[in-house]
Predict the 3D structure of the following.
Amino acid sequence: MQHDDDNQALRLDATIDQENFSEGTMTISSDDGYAEKWMTISEAVRLKIGANRHQFWIKPLYPIELSQDLIELGCPTTLAKDYVTRHYADVIQQAARSAIGFTGQLKFTYAPRMPLAIELEPAPIPADESVLDRMAPGSIPPNPNYTFKEFVVGKPNSLAAAAAQKAAELIARGGTPEFNPLFVHGQSGLGKTHLLHAIVWHVLQNNPKAKVMFITAEVFMRKFVTAIKENSILAFKDELRDVDLFLVDDLQFIVQGDKGATQEEFFLRFNELVGMGKQVVFSADRSPAHMDKLAERIRTRMLHGLNAEVHTPDLEMRLAIVERKLERLQLQYPKVQVPGDVKRFIASRITSNTRELEGALQQLVYFGEVSEETLTIDLTRTILADRLNLSDRRVTVEEIKRVVAGFYSVRIQDMDGPRRTRNLVRPRQTAMYLAKTMTPRSYPEIGRRFGDRDHTTVMHAVRQIERLAAADPVLAGEIEHLRRMIKEGLPPPGGRGDGREGGLN
């Protein structure tokens, strides 16, 4: 009989726990009376702060210890622990005093019980069926959010944006490509894929006869291998010849695969399309000039077209991206207001790429919607702590070169070039030193990003700057100032203004 009673109690506890779990509330065993007491306190807090704030901040908490001497509450995230401690500790203390006569210590502990899942990326809007009918099998459906209208143009991407729009307009009018192939390259998250989607959308919406193949390098390789296995290589070639616009995203994966036959077939196919007057567009994480495993004749043919690099956005452009993204987000969350100082803070701190920037804004606006808290810089710093720390670690060589070149009033092209004049050597070596100390790039990688210099040149530059900075406090101060500008994403001034010239050898 006792055994049956025990089983019934266990089933009852399991039912209670399952119900609490499904509501998003985690409790420990009710044997100690914690759950009932905490529910009483929690309800008193809800009446004080309102249902929405209670749902977001208080309901996820659970009692680890609950007695007259100590209430210890488990917090599922460090953000919850820090925020509840600062803003709701007094409210919980008063509620506990009123509800159960509590007079002891209140303690918050980071003790996650279940993950907090937030869907940050909106699902892409399905493409119209008539649009998909004009795309070759295996093509990427164009994302309606990735249009030229939604693409923020600034100095770092103006050439690539103008070239993409020009190519799209010519194909939309049935004209002959002006530059072929168009090769857009740059680091991840800077908008290359957005531009390819925008080209596809513009052509399909303005030319009802145009046929498009928009694929990744991986899909191209898979289609080619399948065609060989199934003895259908002629059908594969005919499928490619039939398109008016051929776009390949992440082309570097064809090169990295180091399959000679795949590269050869790829070269023949895109060369044939160019000869037929069809527009070919590629994107990759680097220029063909820097793809080590790329066959030389393919490299030469790709460099014959227009190569447009997308650089890391500067502060002015990041602010524009923040404004544009918030316009769209606030259609979905109209109650959330993001003050100007918060916008500038985010734009100045998240400098690695536009994808990180957009993700941070989505997280911030979602937080403001469900918590109903006023967004301030301090709260933003807490909400985005992980992203801000990650952004600090993702300084790019391109960003370093841009800031150093602006600081010393020289051109980035000259820093990459062969000249060794006095006014260029110091900026070049300083930028190499900062690239080595602020990024995970190796000496050979840094050398490639400074005009394909040998790794020994970079090693010499790092040693020179270390030696000179130790003896020259002015240079040491300049380096620290540059380091801060790079970390915070600040724009360089119009030169340092002291009139000195660099003279390292």
Remarks:
- Residues 2-22 form the longest helix (21 residues).
- The radius of gyration is 29 Å.
- The mean pLDDT is 79.
